Amino acid sequence: MIKKKVLLIILDGWGEGEMNISNPFRFARTENLNYLKKNYPFGLLKASGYTVGLSKNELPSCELAHLTIGIGTTYYRSTVKIDLAIESGEFFKNQKLLSIFTHLKKYNSRLHLIGILSKNNTLASFNHLLALLNFCQLENFNKVFLHLFLDGIDSPPRSALDLLTKLLNILKEKGLPGKIASLCGRFYALDTTGDYLLKTRRVYLLINKGVGVEADDPIKILKSKYEKPDFTDYILEPTIFEKDGIIKDNDAVIFFNHEPKTIHQLAQAIFDPNFDKFEKIPKFNLYLSSLTRYLENVNYQVIFEEQKVTMNLTRIISENNLKQIKITDEPHKVLLTYYFNGFFDKEHPGEVIKTFPSFETELPKIEKQLKEVYEYLKLIITEGVFDLIVVNLPIFDIIGHSGNFKTAISAIELIDQFLPNLISFSLNNKYSIILTSDHGNIEKMINPLTGQKDTTHTYNLVPFFLIDNDYKTTKTDLEVEKSLKEPIGSLINISPTVLDLMNLKIPPEFTGKSLLNYFK
């Protein structure tokens, strides 16, 4: 039998920011939130960085945040795992990478590094390419050919020249191996339209047969191309610089793109033995690999596999034959289903989804929508059918993205007035309440240095309230101030705390710990 029923409220886009002119909380009346801070357990949680599966300079997302909350552990995407491995040095001890060099040395063959050169890490990382070249240097291996694709979409249209110059300077300064064998615009190399013959095949022939425009110097060729007003990196035709740098028998190949969809067609042509979109060139004894997985059910070396998610809060509630309901607006439904449930796309037994129309950015409409949500919550709380209620209110995030500072102040005050009745009603019906957020946004709406609007998510900590009369305790102003200085955990602690309140076993897959012990 469960100990308590729980209402989990996620106020999407609410961080704890600096109390300066960038923060609408500085100008809003928040008597009720202040009362909660002083009379119930309160702390701050990390919602960015490695603790929630993000790289250091990567802004938080709603999707990853809800995933982290729902699965009770840190989900490290392959890109973050690679970054961490490089930082710790484990990258250079990786057994899968070492096996590639065993092959290369055994057959006295060559290594081909293939991927996009971009200023943005969306598809591939410049640092991952450098790490692979460093690996070659550590292995005293010099026969390395680079087949690089120019961006022009996720990077500025003419940024390849700077990137190539930077790369060549690093190779020279650090004595790293690597010759640029070929260049090609992503128009050809990363086609996603299914144009295998006119685009993918041209890249395949470039790296396997050396078919392309012949040139001597990649810097010179780009400078000449930049003289044409309509040219962008995106459309550079397949160009070969090292005729001997094509893939040959016994060679090894590492694709270093980490995003799978855009590289899918070319990966099929290289990795899939059953590929039939065009005739392949027979190659003997190739060692084929990629940093992350692009193709399922194809046998090739994947150096960093994606993390598998096997457990989530929703599943645990369901397996204990308990009832749960998820409530949000229609556009954010996927956050409480697919992501919150660990990429599981079907409803669990006993799981109910309730959506409202998309939240607006105009205050009268927001107020009307909040009343509708409250009336619905009041109804289901009174019925007491659901053991767990999860509510995602994206008002702060939507307004934060709008950049309307005045509306933000009013919305904060509106939420402050909305909460007391809901909390009182929930407590009277024996529901414990966790009030928290997924990431920051609304608390920093102006860049204080430039005065410009700041509409992006933030790296700030997010609030965590445990509103339960069994834990009620009055704090001094000094104690409240102290609770705003250091985090007590991260998003991974939310689901374990829910389970602890309900007296349900926290599974070993949850690396997050319950915060109840912190508040005792």
Q: Which labels suit this protein?
A:
about 525 residues, alpha/beta, Alkaline Phosphatase, subunit A, 2,3-Bisphosphoglycerate-independent phosphoglycerate mutase, substrate-binding domain, 2 domains, eight-stranded mixed sheet, 16 strands
Can you give a write-up of this model?
This protein is α/β, with parallel strands linked by helices. It folds into 2 domains: 5-75 and 310-519, 3-Layer(aba) Sandwich (Alkaline Phosphatase, subunit A), CATH 3.40.720.10; 78-302, 2,3-Bisphosphoglycerate-independent phosphoglycerate mutase, substrate-binding domain. The protein contains 18 helices and 16 strands. The protein has helices at residues 31-39, 62-71, 78-88, 95-107, 126-138, 160-174, 186-189, 196-209, 218-226, 260-271, 313-319, 333-339, 363-383, 395-402, 405-428, 477-483, 494-501, 516-519; strands spanning 5-11, 42-46, 111-117, 144-150, 179-185, 213-214, 239-240, 252-255, 287-290, 301-302, 324-329, 351-356, 388-393, 431-436, 462-467, 489-490. The strands form 2 sheets. The protein has an 8-stranded mixed β-sheet, sandwiched between helices. An 8-stranded mixed β-sheet has the order 6-7-5-4-3-8-9-10, with helices on both faces. Helix 2 crosses helix 12 and helix 13 runs parallel beside helix 15. The longest helix is centred in the last third of the chain and has 24 residues, at 405-428. The model has no long low-confidence stretch (mean pLDDT 96).
